[in-house]
Amino acid sequence: MRAHDVMTEDVLTLAPDTPVSRIAALLLDRGVSAAPVVDSHGGVIGMVSEGDLIDREKAGTAHEARRDWWLALVAEGEQLPPYWADAQNRERTARDVMAAPVITVDINTDTADIARLLMTHGIKRVPVVLDGSLVGIVSRADLLKVLAAEPAEKTEPAHRSGLFQRWERKAPALAPVREPAHEPLFRAADFRHLVGNFHDENARHLAEQRKEALVRRQEKVQELIDHHVADHGWHKLLEGAHDAAARGEKEFLLLRFPAELCSDGARAINAPEPDWPRTLRGEAAEIYQRWHHELQPAGFSLTARVLDFPNGFPGDVGLFLVWGDAEG
Questions:
Q1: What would the pLDDT profile of 28-66 be if each residue is shown by its tens digit?
Q2: Residue 143 contacts by C-beta under 8 Å, 6 or more apart in sequence?
Q3: Domains annotated on the chain, with CATH
Q4: pLDDT per residue over 142-157, tens digit each?
Q5: Are the C-beta atoms of 124 and 139 separated by less than 8 Å?
Q6: 125-130 and 105-106: which strand pairing?
Q7: How far apart are CA 321 and CA 292, in angstroms?
Q8: Nearest 5 degrees, angle CA 158-CA 162-CA 168?
Q9: 52 contacts: CB under 8 Å, gap ≥ 6
Q10: What is an example of a Pfam family matching this protein (predicted)?
Q11: At what angle do helices 140-148 and 111-121 cross, to 10 degrees?
Q12: Alpha-carbon distance 35 to 26, whole Å?
């Protein structure tokens, strides 16, 4: 519900120069505890409540007592001028005792927001304005009536003020408030979407890993192509083969390299084909040449095998120096 649904339209208003005695009489006569103070254009400039009258009356009495003492001291026993007497006897007005500034709400303000406003600021009522002019007031009692009332269509009052009729012509029709439909916490489609996201992310991750691995293999291939087997390195390989034989092994891995180092991607080695040595490049080709000239005449064999098959394709290749079983 909105402010215009619950507000009191017949509001007691006060002019800024309304005497305090008149304010008290009006509040008693209308049976209300407060009234807004409005200017000549209907704008709310303050609020006067019973509490303001009582508190300000006490404060005014004390102030007047102090003023009388001060004036008597200045006059030194002489009669005061007429305008001083008028100042003493002037009755205070709404402007003197009103609380200002005043919190107001628009006619379309939701009643829940009005309730929060009253609680937050510790006030009992709030004026309702349209285009800056007072059109009603909403009090705590008005909100309680809403809570206590049975749900029913709000009947339109028989008489409307001209200002409120002007609002009815200007204000757009309020859309009916619909209760939100109950939605399930989870849907199977949401779960399927999560599964799809997981697989998509996993596929992207695997693709990145393959790309990084390919870059590393290409770098390794280039390194092996550019690298040459020096005598010192060759002798270390032979020492390793010697130690392997001492451990009872019959072969020794001389070099492990990516299949891409072969001109055909190690297809001839995987077949195997007899001319597989022709596909070797770089360091693998140099090791083959060293074996062919130095170790083959001494009875050593050289074999090549594909060591793994990532994604079904040759991965790394190994060149093995073989000496086999002892002749018996």
A1: 898 888 999 999 888 899 999 888 887 655 555 555 555
A2: 6, 111, 114, 115, 118
A3: 3-170 (3.10.580.10), 215-322 (no CATH)
A4: 888 877 775 655 555 5
A5: yes
A6: parallel
A7: 11
A8: 75
A9: 34, 97, 98, 99
A10: CBS
A11: 140
A12: 9
Q: How confident is the model at residue 179 (pLDDT cuts 50, 70, 90)?
A: low
d(Cα 47, Cα 23) in Å, to the nearest integer?
11
Over residues 231-282, the pLDDT tens digits come to: 999 999 999 999 999 999 999 999 999 999 999 999 999 999 999 999 999 9
| 284, 260 contact by CB (below 8 A) | no
Amino acid 87 reads A
CA torsion sign for 273, 274, 275, 280 is positive
Per-residue H/E/C for the chain: CEHHHHCECCCCCECCCCEHHHHHHHHHHHCCCEEEEECCCCCEEEEEEHHHHHHHHHHHHHHHHHHHHHHHHHHCCCCCCHHHHHHHHCCCEHHHHCECCCCCEECCCEHHHHHHHHHHHCCCEEEEEECCEEEEEEEHHHHHHHHHCCCCCCCCCCCCCHHHHHHHHHCCCCCCCCCCCCCCCCCHHHHHHHHHHHHHHHHHHHHHHHHHHHHHHHHHHHHHHHCCCCHHHHHHHHHHHHHHHHCCCCEEEEEEEEHHHCCCCCHHHHCCCCCHHHHCCHHHHHHHHHHHHHHHHHCCEEEEEECCCHHHCCCEEEEEEECCCCCC
Neighbours of 286 (CB within 10 A): 19
Share of the chain above pLDDT 90, in %: 41
Rounded Cα gap, residues 284 and 287, in angstroms:
5
Confidence tier at 12 by pLDDT (50, 70, 90): very high
Burial 239-249 (b: 16+ CB within 10 A, else e): eebeebeeeee
